[in-house]
Write a structure and sequence with these properties.
The protein contains five helices and three strands. The chain is an alpha/beta fold and 140 residues long. The chain has a single domain (3-128), classed as Flavodoxin domain (Rossmann fold, 3-Layer(aba) Sandwich), CATH 3.40.50. The radius of gyration is 17 Å and the shape is flat. The protein binds flavin mononucleotide. Flavin mononucleotide binds at residues 10, 12, 16-19, 95-99.
């Protein structure tokens, strides 16, 4: 069963063009995939915190040894990672704010959703706990 991940990021809910466009795509997709599942995430209504050391370091600690904040952060990382991994197709409504996407959507310079989700590059094998997060991040 195909899955679409539909993400919106405009601060506007009324009159948003990017939301209208992504909704248009999602509707057409649902018609073409009547048995498909749509996962919806609204980054304005439900903002994702920036990736911080708590969330990042949680990847390298065994579950039992995580602090409560690490556990909480890790839960979010896994949720976002699973949404991405489940998706066969992704549509993201992104307005342009000051020559870039909204911070909540994320870029290299302005980490948000993208960076937090990418935090999970190592999370699908969550049980492994590399000795150093900094070395573990260099993928070869
Ligand atoms: C704070 C702010 C900054 C913006 N910066 C740009 C910009 O740099 N370039 C541009 O073409 N449009 C810019 N716009 C216009 C928006 O991209 C445009 O209104 C868009 O439709 C907003 O998305 P939405 O309709 O989904 O809310 C900006 C709008 C706002 C509110």
């Amino acid at each position: 069963m195909p899955t679409l991940l539909h993400v919106d990021s405009s601060m506007r809910h009324e009159g948003s063009r990017s939301r209208a466009l992504s909704a248009h795509f999602a509707e057409a997709w649902q018609q073409a995939n009547p048995d498909g599942t749509v996962i919806y995430r609204d980054l304005a209504a439900d903002p994702i915190p920036h990736l911080d050391l708590t969330a990042f370091s949680a990847n390298f600690v065994a579950d039992d040894d995580r602090t409560p904040p690490q556990r909480e952060a890790r839960k979010l990382t896994e949720t976002l990672a699973n949404e991405l991994l489940r998706a066969d197709e992704i549509v993201i409504g992104i307005p342009l704010y000051n020559f870039g996407p909204p911070e909540r959507a994320g870029t290299t310079a302005n980490p948000g959703y993208a960076t937090h989700s990418a935090n999970s590059a190592s999370t699908t094998s969550a049980s492994s706990t590399p000795s150093s997060p900094w070395h573990a991040r260099s993928h070869k």
